[in-house]
């Protein structure tokens, strides 16, 4: 796996684990908020092939229900 691919995969995994932790009873939501923002900002560019050619992340609807 390329170094960027490994960083991307590890960061996405950490975000997923943090989301699971946030749903637990007694989770420290201040911690979740601080760490999730830090992880999201540190997320590297996705490796080639993750998105289809021509994909524009800013060209879609503001939320999944908007068309």
Supply the key terms.
mainly alpha; about 70 residues; single chain; 2 helices
Task: Characterize this entry briefly.
The protein is an all-alpha fold. It is 51% helix and 0% strand. The chain has helices at 3-22, 29-42.
User: What structural category do the secondary elements indicate?
Assistant: mainly alpha
Mean pLDDT: 81
Shape: globular
Q: What order do the helices and strands follow? A: HH
Please work out how many helical segments DSSP would assign.
2
Folded structure, characterized:
This protein is mostly helical. The protein is about 50% helix and about 0% strand. It is globular, with a radius of gyration of 15 Å. The model has no long low-confidence stretch (mean pLDDT about 80).
What's the layout of helices and strands?
Elements (H helix, E strand, L loop, with lengths): L2 H20 L6 H14 L25
């Amino acid at each position: 796996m390329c170094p960027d691919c490994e960083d991307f995969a590890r960061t996405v995994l950490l975000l997923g684990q943090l989301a699971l932790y946030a749903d637990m009873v007694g989770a420290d939501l201040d911690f979740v908020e601080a760490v999730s923002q830090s992880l999201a900002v540190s997320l590297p560019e996705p490796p080639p092939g993750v998105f289809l050619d021509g994909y524009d992340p800013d060209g879609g609807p503001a939320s999944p229900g908007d068309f």
